[in-house]
Design a protein that fits this description.
This protein has 250 residues and is an alpha/beta fold. Helices cover 43% and strands 14% of the residues. It starts with 5 loop residues before the first strand and ends with a strand. Bound molecules: NADP nicotinamide-adenine-dinucleotide phosphate.
Length: 250
C-alpha cells in the first residue's frame, strides 16, 4: 500500500470540488480528480500539481463508476477519502436566474423529468459511487466519506415559518439534498461499527457556476468544512450535518 493517503473527489474539475482537491493535495494526499469530461479533469489535475490525476467519472453512468473504482484499486491500491461533491441544480438552460430556478422547482409545476435528472445525479449518483468504492474504503486505516449537501435541504430549517429561505425549498434541488441527507445518515448507521465515518456538509452560498457566481463565499471558504470532515481523526463524529459554524439541523 502506498504511504500517502488517497482521496477521490467527484466533480472536481471546477468549483468547490476543485478547491477541495487542491486543499487535500496540500495536506499530502494523492488526489484523484473525478470529472465526467476527462480533458477538463486533466486540466484541473495539472493545476493542482504532481500528486493529482484525472479519473473519468460520470456519477450517473454505472460503467464509468465501475471503471473508475477498478482504476483506483489497480493504480492506487487504496482509497482513504471519498468526497461526493458532484451535483446539478437544474437541467434547464444555463444562466437561469435564481428566481427562475425557484419557480421551475415549485412542486405544483416542476417537470418530473427535471426532478428525476437532478435526483439521478445528486442522490442515486452518490449511492452508486459510494457502493462502488466502499470495498476500498473498508480496507483503509481511516475511511472518510464526505457528502456535499446544502442547508437548503434541511427539513427542520424549512419547516420553520420564520425561515427566510423557505421560498427556495422546491421539489428538485432542495429536495434532492434532503434525500442526500437521509442517504448520508443511512450509510453512517450501517457503517457505525467500522472505521469509516460518513458526514454531510453545507459549504455555504458560494460563487460558482450554478448561481452565476452570485454567492458571497469564495471556494476557499466553501472547501474548509468538507476538508475538515475528510481529515477527522478516529474520535471524530459520524452521521452529522454541519457547516463551518457548527451542526445544522437535518
Ligand atoms: P459546480 O461548479 O457546478 O460544480 C459541480 C461539479 O459537479 C462539476 O465539476 C460538474 O461537472 C460535476 N457534475 C455534475 N454532474 C455530474 C455527473 N453526472 N458526473 C460527474 N460530475 C458531475 O458547482 P459547485 O457550486 O462547486 O457545487 C459543488 C457542491 O456543493 C454540489 O454538491 C452543490 O450542490 C454543493 N453546494 C453548493 C453551494 C453553492 O452555493 N455553490 C451551496 C450549497 C451546496 P461538469 O463541469 O462536467 O458540469
Amino acid at each position: 500500500m502506498p504511504n500517502k493517503p488517497v482521496a477521490l473527489v467527484t466533480g472536481a474539475n471546477k468549483g468547490i470540488g476543485l478547491q477541495i482537491a487542491k486543499d487535500l493535495a496540500a495536506r499530502s494526499f494523492s488526489v484523484l480528480v473525478g470529472s465526467r469530461d476527462i480533458k477538463e479533469g486533466e486540466k484541473a489535475a495539472q493545476s493542482i500539481g504532481a500528486d493529482a490525476r484525472a479519473v473519468q467519472l460520470d456519477v450517473t453512468d454505472q460503467a464509468s463508476i465501475a471503471a473508475a473504482a477498478e482504476r483506483v484499486r489497480k493504480e492506487m491500491g487504496r482509497l482513504d477519502v471519498l468526497v461526493n461533491n458532484a451535483a446539478i441544480s437544474q437541467t434547464g438552460k444555463r444562466g437561469a436566474t435564481i428566481d427562475q430556478m425557484i419557480e421551475a422547482a415549485r412542486p405544483s409545476v416542476a417537470p418530473r423529468d427535471d426532478v428525476r435528472a437532478v435526483f439521478e445525479t445528486n442522490v442515486f449518483g452518490v449511492i452508486a459511487v459510494t457502493q462502488a468504492l466502499l470495498p476500498l474504503l473498508r480496507e483503509a486505516p481511516a475511511g472518510r466519506i464526505v457528502n456535499l449537501s446544502s442547508a437548503m435541504g434541511s427539513l427542520t430549517l424549512n419547516a420553520d415559518p420564520s425561515s427566510a429561505y423557505k421560498e427556495m425549498f422546491g421539489v428538485t434541488y432542495a429536495a434532492s439534498k434532503t434525500a442526500l441527507n437521509a442517504v448520508t445518515l443511512s450509510f453512517a448507521l450501517e457503517l457505525a461499527n467500522t472505521r469509516i465515518k460518513v458526514n454531510a456538509v453545507c459549504p455555504g452560498y458560494t460563487a460558482t457556476a450554478p448561481n452565476n457566481f452570485s454567492g458571497p463565499r469564495t471556494v476557499e471558504q466553501a472547501a474548509r468544512e468538507p476538508v475538515r470532515l475528510a481529515l477527522l481523526d478516529e474520535n471524530g463524529p459520524t452521521g452529522t450535518f454541519s457547516n463551518e459554524d457548527g451542526p445544522l439541523p437535518w
